[in-house]
Amino acid sequence: MRRASTLLAALALLLAGCTTVPGGDGTPPPRAERWRPKPGLAWQWQLSGTLDASVDVPVYDIDGFDHPAATVAGLRAAGRRVICYLSTGAWEEWRPDAAEFPEELLGKGNGWPGERWLDIRRTDVLEPLMAERIEMCRSKGFDAVEPDNMDGYANATGFPLTAADQLRYHRLIARLAHERGLAVGLKNDLDHIPELVGELDFAVNEQCAQYRECARLSPFVRAGKAVFHVEYELAADAFCPQARKLGLSSQRKRYELDAWREPC
């Protein structure tokens, strides 16, 4: 489901004069200087459909495989920071490297068509595969990585994963990103915030308002780190007042994560 197609026209639109938006703390830095997004930054999260490059926000979160370096360069030329979405905790059958994942690493389906949980204990196999993916993000010019499906220990994966297994895997992905000068976020997995808020650069959360958990993300905001948050089922006026009070970067999206958005 998480597929996106990019038209050359989108890049042309950017290069033809899209509004320049500061990337939180100014012009995008040299690659050696890691981005550290601050609380309150507006963002666009689009993982399906033709990329709408005209949304006037300082941060874009887009699929790392589906977009070429030219798209990332166009967004950065317009002053935007760009986050590379990757599924690091689940296998996706349509990815170009899917055949490199041994069958024994593939567990139960995670609820999305064509996706299966990974045995994150097998870092001997997963580390080089994830290093290649994160290097792809770096080579395309992304500023950061959003590692998805990083809560397998709390789901029926088919493997006896523990919270300690998950914490080790979080830290592995963070190390691979930081070694390449990329920021890295905590995707959902609120239980590991105390251990990881000092090590990761931002958070991405789905539906904390619906489940009455948004206050648990406050350690990131207190640490001066952005929390990029979406709701799917609640009306904006039902969650935006609390989100603004907590300092979250919040919006309403559709489950398909197309271009439509309703920001707070």
UniProtKB/TrEMBL annotation:
Signal peptide (residue range): 1-23
Domain annotation Glycoside-hydrolase family GH114 TIM-barrel: ranges: 43-260
InterPro entries on file: Aldolase_TIM, GH, GH114_TIM-barrel
Pfam family, one: Glyco_hydro_114
TM regions (residue ranges): none
UniProt entry keywords in alphabetical sequence: Signal
Statement: the UniProt record of this protein carries the keyword Amino-acid biosynthesis: no
Protein name: Endo alpha-1,4 polygalactosaminidase
UniProt source species: Streptomyces solincola
